[in-house]
Every structure is written in structure tokens, then in C-alpha cells.
Amino acid sequence: MIRSGIRVVLIGAALSGLGACHGAEDEEAGPPPVRPVLYTEAKPVDTIVFGPFAGFVAPRYQSEIGFQIAGRVIARDVTVGDVVKKGQRIAALDPIVTRFALTRAEAELADATAQSENASATELRQRRLIANGNVSQARLDSAVASRDTAQARLAQAQANLQKARDQMGYTELHADFDGVVTVRSAEVGQVLSAGQAVATLARPEEREAVVDIPEDLVGAMPKDAVFTVALQSAPDVTATGKVREISPFADQKTRTRRIRMTLLNPPEAFRLGSTITVELSRHMKPRFPLPATAVFEADGRSAVWIVNQAGDAVARRDVTVADRNGERVSITEGLKPGERVVLAGALSLSEGQRVRLADTSQ
Q: Which of 103, 136, 321, 356 is the most buried (most CB within 10 A)?
């Protein structure tokens, strides 16, 4: 009996100890801790800006011009930036060699003319003699062949003379149209081959904007949009540009694509080579841009944590995400201007949890 009493006492003491432990744990659990959070204020955006991108003004049409024959340059009458008129001389070659070729061609023509006349006279005499039976048919056939050969050589000599005269004209290079010299490629004393560029002429009446845009942004660029083009030296001077050409390949070093835009009625200040800025602004339905870390998925819906007016607790709010672009998202429904949205730690918060805000919004 004494032993049984001792057992009951020990069991009761043990149960009392366990009860005391549970009570201590309940006291220690208490309310959840206050969590510090980063936040941002929801600000609606109703305009999307594509750009800005830096570029320059370039001519739509330009040509590299050069001599049609080889030779040594003895004159260069223009330099970069000069405005030239159609027919104006650009450069000249030494004409000595071509003059000798012309003299030779004239001499060959004179010789061929004499040979042709002699062969024609011989053929005529042979015809008269054969009519009287004084020569054979073979002599007449030979005279006819000589006449045809001489006439062929005469035609060849005439063509060579015309070629020599044309080449004399090729010793001077003239502008084919009104334009501006954008590149100078040859100097006096330089020996050029046929077709080698001497200068580059651009037509200033049709200008376009040339910009390099990162390859990953080209897909988001509206093809039929009208861009705003502004001079970097005078941002108030603007023009409009429409995409004319998109390079099919990206530059291997910069990974950008070259875009050419036709300038629509640009001011005179848009001179060739001017540095410009190109951008596109479009109005859209108001939306709230946020970092992607602010949005989480719950019950199959996208949601964010909203900080209450007192700034000491959070509540979950379902939102509609319009688009995602890397580390940014756009919210079209579920937010109001000025509301404070938690930026990070969304998965570690709970409904009504007490929080402490950072000193400033992000």
C-alpha cells in the first residue's frame, strides 16, 4: 500500500510538471513578431516611352564616284562638306597617256581609211578586167575579200578612235547630281585604278535618322509608329520619323540592329551628320509598374501585400497583371494611387501581420 501511494504521488508530480511546461511554451509563443518591410507607393503610368536612343542624320541616297580609267590624280577640286552642282568638276587625271592613245587611234584610222579605199579601188578594177576576160574569177574573189577585210579594219579603227576620245573625257570627274561631299577618298598625286572611289556624294534633299537599337528591344518596337526626333544640340528642334528599314542582322560586337527612319519634313537644322535623339511616347490604359518580387501567387490568383493607413499591418490584395518584362510587372486592376505595396518577403508574411516600414519608400 505504501508503494502504491508513492507511485500515485510520482505520477501526479510528473503530470504537473508537463502542464507547467506547456503553460510556459504558450506564454513564450505570444503574438507574431513585428517584421520590417520595404515598400513602394503605387503610382499610375498612362504613357509608355520607347527610347530614347542616340543616332545621327544621314542621307538616304549617296554614291561613291570614281574615274572610269586608271591614272594619276593631278587635281582635286572639292573636300568634305562642299556643296557641288551637277556637272561640276570633282577631280582630274593626268591626260598625257590618254592623249597619246588618242593620237595613235587617229593614226590607225587614217591608215585603215587608206587601206579601205585602196582595196575598194582594186576590187573595182578587177571587176572591169573580168568583164573583158582578162583576169580569172579567183583574182576577183581575192580582191573582194581584201576589200571586206579593209572595211572591217576601218570600222575597228573608227571604234578605237571613239573610245580614245571618250577616255580623254574620262580624265575629268564631274558630279552627276547636286549634292554634298561626305567622304574624300583620294589625294593629288595618288595613282588610282579604274573605278576606285575618289569621293562620296550625298543627296541632301532626302534625309533620314539612323539609330542602333539593342536586339532584344527591336521586337517591342512598333513598326508603323511615328517617332519623335530631336537634335541633341537643340532639343527644342524636332521632327518626326517613320521606320523605313530594319537591319536583318545584329552587329556582332554591340548586338544592336541599325534602324533607318525617314524624316518627314525636317527643319534645315537637321544637317547631315547631326547627332539626334529618337524616342516614342504612346498613351495607354493606366497601370502600376512594380518590381516582380512584389507579386506572388495565392489560390491561383496574383496578389500583393498592402500596408494599411497606420503603417503597422498588411493585408493581401488580388491584382491583375497586364504584362511581365523581366524584373518588372504592370498591374492594371487591384491597386489605387498612393497605396503602399510591400516589395520583398511576400511569402513570409501573413494576413494582418504587424510590420514596421522602412524610413523611405523604394
A: 321
